[in-house]
Amino acid sequence: MKVGILFGGPSREREISFAGGRTVYDNLDRSLFEPVPLFVDSHRNIILLDWHFIYKGAIRNFYPPPATLPPSPHHFEIYVESLGELSVEQQDELIRQVGSKVEPEELPALIDIAFLALHGAYGENGEIQRELTQLNIPYTGSGARACQIGADKSMLSELLGVRNFTRPPMMALYREEWLQGKPSDYYQEATEKVGFPMAIRPVSQGPSIGVSILTEDQGLEGFDLAINRALFREILPVYEWRDRSKFERSEYVHLITDIRDGLGFPIDVTFQGTAQTIYHPEGLIDYLNKRSDTGAEGEAFILESHHQEEKVLIEKYTEGKYFSCIVVQNEDKGVTALPPTEIIRDSHVFDYNFRYMLGLSQKITPVELPEQQIQAIREACQRLFEELGFKVYARIDGVFSKEGKVLFTGLKTTSAMLPSSFLFHQAAEIGLNSAQVLTFILRTSLQERLAEAPDNEQYQSLLAQLDQKIAAARSAAAQKRRMGVLFGGNSFERHLSVQTGRNVFEKLASSTQYQPLPIFLNQTEEGYELYQLPLNLMLTDNADEIRERVSSFQVHPLVQAIRRECAGLRARYGSPETIFEPRKRSEDELAEWVNGVFIALHGRPGEDGQLQEELEKRGLPYNGSGVQSSAVTINKYQTLQTLARNGFTVADQLVMSRQAFEQSQEEFYKRVENRLAYPFVAKPVDDGSSSAVKILKSREELEAFTRLMFRPPGEEGKEARHKLRLKIREEFPRKPEILFENLVGARGARQFMEVTIGLLTHYKDNGAIRYELFEPSEILATGEIPSLEDKFFAGEEQHITPARFSSNPEEYQAITRQLKEQVERAARILNIQGYARIDAFVRIYSDNSVEAIIIETNSLPALTPAAILFQQAAINGYTPFEYLDKIITFGFERQARKTPLAPTLPEKAPPVDPLRVPKAITVMPGTTEKGQPVYGAVYKKEPDSPPLKPQPFWQYLLGQARKVAVETGRFLASPVFLRNFGAIIGTFLVFFFLATSFLNLYTHHGESLQVPDFIGMDLRDASRKAQRQDFKLTVIDSFFDSSKIPNTIYQQDPKAFQRAKQGRTIYVSKYRVTPDSAILPTLVSAGYNYTQYATKLKRLDIKTAVREKIFDSKQEENTILYFYHKGRKITDEMLRRGVKVPKGATLDFVITERITGAVPVPDLVCKRYDAAIFLIEGSNLILGNVFGDTGFHEGAYVYKQEPEYIPGMQMGIGQQINIYLTDTRPAGCADDLDPSSLDGGSDGSQEEQEDFN
Question: Which of 58, 80, 54 is nearest to 69 (CA)?
Answer without folding.
Answer: 80
